[in-house]
């Protein structure tokens, strides 16, 4: 469709690498020479090859800002059959948090800083400035699309774009959470328990803090191997944000220790658990500041 080509050219001019997407909103299959990566792949792929194929082959790796390529006969034929325009967020210096449904959007509103949003069929894309490795299914209904992936172009969206936050980077922590085979969790940090004595400057009641903490720990414990690291981040951040207006101290270190211990128990390596929780506590403080 010529409208897709026009959109693609507009994006290419704005330094956003584009590619046509066919029925099913997926990239076109490789040409015969590139089928099953027989060509070895393009130079920008993870396993770099020397493919210089001028067709829209190799999915996101074909995305380009080159007008001559975008308007070439091979690509024009693809635009004519395309159902929409795709782009390579990482190539444009962007990260798209793809929220598939209303529940995912509600989660993002609670946990992620506001940024430019684009409506999708059933959910939203939240677009941040900055790149990171892409990760699918970081949570139910949530994909992170940046380097080496493509997203559907659904218009410029609304709202001011903001910098890629740690909260999104932390979603990728789950990739690291499965202990290497043979690696045994040998030690647990000393058991820390939050109580009133460590929180002399907290304006909340003991039961309020305790209930929030137990709920957060339950969320972390409910995760097995994957996702527990990012869950720990989210819980730390959420609990710390409850104390944004307390004079302090609120015993946040102790709360952090409890979250770390819960994450380790479900298989998160201690170093990652500590980093995720420290990031979560810090991010909450930064946002409150
Ligand atoms: Zn090809
Ligand atoms: Zn190829
Ligand atoms: Zn407090």
The low-pLDDT segments are 175-187
Q: Which range does the strand content fall in?
A: 5-15%
Bound molecules: zinc ion
What does the largest sheet look like? Answer: 6 strands, mixed
Rg for CA atoms: 23 Å
Helix content: 25-40%
Task: Describe the global form.
Answer: elongated
Judged by helices, strands and strand pairing, the structural class is alpha+beta
Distance between the termini: 49 Å
Order of helices and strands: HEEHHEEHEEEEEEHHHHH
Mean pLDDT: 87
Protein name: Bifunctional DNA primase/polymerase
InterPro entries: DNA_primase/pol_bifunc_N (IPR015330)
Pfam family, one: Prim-Pol
Domain DNA primase/polymerase bifunctional N-terminal: 8-184
Question: What would you note in describing this structure?
Answer:
This protein has 289 residues and is α+β, with helices and mostly antiparallel strands. The chain has three domains: 2-85, no CATH class; 90-164, no CATH class; 174-288, no CATH class. Helix content is 35%, strand content 14%. The strands form two sheets. Strands 4, 5, 6, 7, 8 and 10 form a six-stranded mixed sheet that branches. The model is unreliable at 175-187 (pLDDT under 50). One zinc ion (ZN) binds at residues 202-204, 243, 246, 250. It holds the Pfam family Prim-Pol. Residues 8-184 form the DNA primase/polymerase bifunctional N-terminal domain.
């Amino acid at each position: 469709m010529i409208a897709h080509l026009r959109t693609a050219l507009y994006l290419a001019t704005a330094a956003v690498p584009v590619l046509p997407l066919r029925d099913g909103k997926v990239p076109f299959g490789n040409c015969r020479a590139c089928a099953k990566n027989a060509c070895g792949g393009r130079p920008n792929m993870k396993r770099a090859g020397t493919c210089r194929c001028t067709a829209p082959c190799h999915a996101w790796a074909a995305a380009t800002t080159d007008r001559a390529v975008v308007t070439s006969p091979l690509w024009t034929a693809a635009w004519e059959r395309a159902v929409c325009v795709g782009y390579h967020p990482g190539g444009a210096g962007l990260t798209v948090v793809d929220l598939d449904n209303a529940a995912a959007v509600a989660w993002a509103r609670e946990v992620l800083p506001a940024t430019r949003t684009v409506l999708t069929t059933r959910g939203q894309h939240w677009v941040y400035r900055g790149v990171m490795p892409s990760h699918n299914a970081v949570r139910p209904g949530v994909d992170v699309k940046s380097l080496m992936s493509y997203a559907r172009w659904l218009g410029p969206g609304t709202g001011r774009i903001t910098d890629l936050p740690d909260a999104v980077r932390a979603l990728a922590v789950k990739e690291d959470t499965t202990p290497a085979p043979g690696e045994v969790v040998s030690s647990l940090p000393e058991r820390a328990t939050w109580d009133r004595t460590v929180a002399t400057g907290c304006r909340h009641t003991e039961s309020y803090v305790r209930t929030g903490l137990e709920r957060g720990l339950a969320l972390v414990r409910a995760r097995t191997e994957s996702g527990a690291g990012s869950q720990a981040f989210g819980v730390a951040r959420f609990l710390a944000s409850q104390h944004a207006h307390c004079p302090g101290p609120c015993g946040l270190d102790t709360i952090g220790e409890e979250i770390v211990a819960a994450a380790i128990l479900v298989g998160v390596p201690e170093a990652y658990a500590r980093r995720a929780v420290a990031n979560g506590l810090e991010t909450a403080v930064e946002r409150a500041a």
